[in-house]
Amino acid sequence: MEKAKLSDLLKALSTRERTRFREMALSPFFNKNPKITALLDFLLSFAPDFSSPKLAKELAYQAVYGPGSTFNELRINNLISDTLQLGYQLLAQLELSNRPALERELLLNPLLDRRASRHLRQNARRMKQLTRQLPSRSVQYLHQTVQEAYLLDRAELLRAPRRYNPYLQAHSDQLDLYFSCQKLRAACDMASRNRAINAGYSCQYIDTVLSWHQQPGSPLRQWPAITVYAEAYAMLTTDKEAHYRQLKVLLQGHRGLFPQEELQDLYDYLQNFCVKQINSGHTAYYREILDNYKEMLAQGLLHRQGMLTQWTYINIATAGIRLQEFKWTEWFLRTYREELDPENRENVFTYNLAALQFEQSAYHKTLQTLQDVDFSDAFYHMSAKIIQLKSYYELGEEEALLALLEASRKYIQRNRQLSAYQKKSNHHFLKAIGWLQKAKSRGRQFGSAAPELPLRSDIQALEPVNNKGWLLDKAKQLEGQQPL
Prior knowledge:
This is Tetratricopeptide repeat protein. The protein is mainly α. It contains 23 helices and two strands.
């Protein structure tokens, strides 16, 4: 049962949330089935990882229905399903408790249905207060003001149906703002994904929104969040540096307007712009990428579900190494090590630390670091072997290099985790470093007459190939030229 949805949900909950789950199960308002509580007690005894082989349906059945009970799979499946639904209800309740303005909005609907005028006025005022206290002034806030105006208009109709009230106009005006902001946000997301995967998304009415925003005196221009999204969209669709610079300025001045999720998306757009510039040959944008990452770290914008993803960790380390900020990069690697997913923490940390040490020309230290961990993931295993091979090459350890070269070839052939692209890219690297080592050991230059070994052009022709820049740099050195 360790792979069941219920176990997955319990694993995703914090310790406090699991305690709240049990409290909900004990409340007769939410749950009147004591078997659900018994099943939950059995499951929670395996917290926090829920990976024990004893976490099985048969054992759960005995714990709930008593030792010696005849196992009935349909019965336990139904009980598991009911417990899962209670878990979903818990998440909804937790979300509601974190959004008091929404909670008050939901309260107004039944009060309106019951024409409870005295309660309506009091709770309507409270809803307005809670809406104004929302920390952001972006999509969520505008949506809340739309609902607020709509409910206030309904309440006013009950009190004075034949008199003008300002809430219908406010509802229309706020709806325009909300639509424009949400439309721009969706348009940015579409433009970003179209660039990444050529998805072909099309955003209707976006030109109308942008035209309205550009008009002098437009109400859209009074909302900085809308201006930020308009600038992000311009950057994503034109690739002009001026829009990138302006978006950075706007974000620095108005980051407090956005909740974390929206800020993360906006900074991701900045980073994607920088990556595209780097891929176009503008390597100066590595500085922009690292500066943006530092800003995001300072603002707490890089964590997902409380952890740093391995890819973000690698990207930050790569940028730091590229810019030769070695001291800061090592500080980052060690400081944020514990914030990686425990499942791949050692692989990710060790690989990146070894990559850093290699770039510092600490080849012996690099090899020692890579000996301290057994890489369980095929990607990291092969990446580590490449760093080892490069270190052996730099140290002149020909025998060790050739032995590892052969072992790596066999690993690629037998491994089923590596994609076809990864296998080909790594295989070409092994071929090229073999050429380099052979040329180096013979003391020949590739540029000599009637060369017996591949020239730089042969390495250049390999596609795809891992670490191509390093390979070409070593080939130039063997030709007696200065490295790039």
